[in-house]
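Throughout our pipeline, every protein is held as a single compact record rather than as scattered files. This encoding replaces a full spatial description with a residue-level series of whole-number codes. The remainder of this section carries one protein's record, kept here as part of the documentation.
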Amino acid sequence: MTEIVASEPTTTVEAVVRIDGLSKSFDGRLVLDSVGLTVRRGQIVAIIGQSGGGKTTLLRCVNLLERPDGGTIEVAGEPVFAAGKVVCRSLARLRQSVGMVFQRFNLFPHLTAVENVMLAQQRAGVGESEALERSVALLRRVGLAHRGLAYPEQMSGGEQQRVAIARALALKPTVLLFDEPTSSLDPESTGEVLKVMRELADDGMTMILVTHELTFARDVADWVVFVDGGHIIEQGVPAEVLGRPRELRTKAFLTTYAAGG
């Protein structure tokens, strides 16, 4: 089993996400093979690797969008999955604690930006006036105070993704998950989204991100994990993994990336 600890172990820094022995198969194909991961409060962990290597599946298992086959998951000290069973008290509560930003925004097309950010809050029991006030503040935080009444089709991809980030923040999550948040964006929109993510990092938000933006991972992440074939091949601080990789498979991946492949 490969264990990731995204910092030097301490007794004073809380482990927000703890995974041990995680495995997952699809149609008989092993996608994750006994993976371990510990992320501490305020840390940013970047997961990199080729498509199909298990990165997104690992991310989706954290909030049980994918149900693992084996292993254990804890979020904020609460058991989520163990002994082959979902053991969290409420999936809805789990997904309030673990916000997620997807590749494809997933905004409701018939709702305005502010309504998209309000919706999850209201379903969680937040009153309309409080949800509206919080949503306006979050749109301002991501640089979209002027777009609150716009519908998704009226916004650029970068604007939609920033609305999605505001929505993920609305329930005050303990940790934010990002699944290739810039993969479908043009360079200008990518820059807008990465700027917001940098600001969240500066504010101390705990984040786990699957990304192909290696420059962003190098500059912002505390810990970089290279995943391939369902295994953690290499992990460490960005300067080591991205600058001085030890494993041949990591070197080959970075060489391919540098060549534009």
In short: Residues 2-258 form a domain with the Rossmann fold fold (CATH 3.40.50.300).
